[in-house]
Amino acid sequence: MLGGVGHVVAKVRIRNPGDPSRFMELELLVDTGSTYTWIKRSRLEKLGVKPMTKWGFKAIEGRVIEHDIGEVVIKCLGEKATTIVVFGEEDDHEVLGVYSLEGLRLEVDPVTRQLRKTEALLAL
Fold first, then answer.
1. Within 13 A of 57's CA, how many CA atoms are on the CB side?
2. Considering its fold, how many domains does the chain have in total?
3. Is residue 4 part of a domain?
4. By CB distance 3.0 to 4.6 Å, which of 52, 53, 55, 118 could disulfide with 105?
């Protein structure tokens, strides 16, 4: 699960929720600073994932950019969830964001810097 120095990489399988036969396996950089999972538009289109709407996102430099969003089923470390994905452009990084991590009940271990299953969720 560990990528380069200080980077955590997750092996995931994503699939089109409407067509279980269309899936792909990816290695995504785990980015706890990103709310959502970003995957290149070309990959999502290859799976037949359709945009649901456009959302505005604030870029690092402060400008607002619009991207299509959709849904995929994602599987990692034996856990599976339906999650929101952002249709990234070819020059965007592909990342596994916090929304997907929480849906999968996964977290980054602060000591080992590896992805692990969450022991328990907060009840409140």
1. 17
2. 1
3. no
4. 118
